[in-house]
Amino acid sequence: MQFAVPPRRSPLPIARSSRMPIYRRKQFKSIAVLAFAIFSLLFIVHHIYSLGSPSLTAAVPSGVVIVTLLDRQRLSESYVKKIVTNREDYAKRHGKAFLSHLIYIRVESNRRTRTGYTNFFASVADYADAIGDAPRTWAIAPAVRHAMAKYPQSAYFFHLSPHSLIMNPTKSLNSHILEKNKLEELVMKDASIVPPDSIIKTFAHQNEKDIEFIITQDTEDLNPGSFILKSGEFARFFLDMWFDPLYRSYNFAKAETHGLDHILQWHPTVLARTALVPQRSISSYSKDSLRASPEGTYKDGDLVIQFRGCEEVEGRDCERELEPYYKIWLGIPQRD
Predict the structure, then answer these.
(1) CB-facing half-sphere around the CA of 146: CA atoms within 13 A
(2) In 3-state terms, the chain is what percent helix, strand and coil (to 5)?
(3) Is 219's pLDDT higher than 70?
(4) Which of 38, 135, 162, 56 is closest to 102 using CA atoms?
(5) Considering the domain boundaries, does residue 5 fall inside one?
(6) How far is CA 149 from CA 141, 153, 231, in A?
(7) Which among 158, 164, 137 has a CA at the least distance from the CA of 307?
(8) Taking the mean position of all CA atoms in its chain, how far away is CA 53?
């Protein structure tokens, strides 16, 4: 008896086993490539949109941090409260006002920043171990460095002496100083670093894009009571240099002020990134301040008034000098 045996070579099954898997693999490959392309396109569109979206940038830390160093062992609670109130009012005004101004949103080194404002109130006592036996005023450098560590995505750090008041809260640092055209207008070129006739001068040709440190001067020295420092590698390098133990060991007559004078005169790397601006632009002196000049004394409308030396000179009282200007800032009418 014979049985029907299927042929050893059946063309139909072989055709299905060889062609169909290849076809399916090609389909899967095409689908995978298309899905990857769509995903990539969506990622790029989302990334571009997020850079310009105020709802997303609003979550980024403030663009300007106001650093105020308080010596709470020497300042009364009422005095500290006035300084804090003054700074917080300014930050609140401009922290909200600029959220909708996308023109000020910038992208630097792939970081998103906005021009919101916030405060960092430091205490001299927190840096006592680092300062050692040097004068307490050296705490400015580690205080600003501390602020940079706390707000690493912020664009600028504005150090302001505790013996000063922001008198014109309508002026933002952006419109008053930091905008390109404004800064180029204010920069003092070919000017003596240490007045009146230091042979070391600011560069005659300096581009706005190279400026990362903005400061002013009085009739004798640079004025570290008010300066603006742009966040970045230079800022960290500069602060570390300024606070170097070697400079603190020199026993400069004016401590950190003379240390700063020295650095800018003998280190062109720092000078090349520094802009000197007129005193009244960021730190007008009160009429009783040390080294007050007609060009640098406070006038109505100036951004800041500083009571330079009020804590140093016998017979002066910082709180008494601040009080009438604080009332003006509050809008309280003054008697003649």
Answers:
(1) 18
(2) 45, 15, 40
(3) yes
(4) 56
(5) no
(6) 13, 9, 10
(7) 164
(8) 22
In a domain, 321, yes or no: no
Q: What's the pLDDT tens digit per position in 74-93?
A: 999 999 999 999 999 999 99
What is the pTM (predicted TM-score) of this model? 0.77
Asked whether residue 184 is domain-assigned, the answer is: yes
Q: How many residues in total does the chain contain?
A: 336
Per-residue pLDDT of 250-264, as tens digits, reads: 999 999 999 999 999
d(CA 69, CA 123): 6
Cα separation, 179 vs 176, whole angstroms: 7
pLDDT tens string 287-306: 999 889 999 999 999 999 99
CATH code of 264's domain: 3.90.550.10
Q: Which residues of 238-250 are buried (b: 16+ CB within 10 A; e: fewer)?
A: bbebbbeeebbee
Tokens representing 17 are 């086993």
Structure tokens at 317: 């009282």
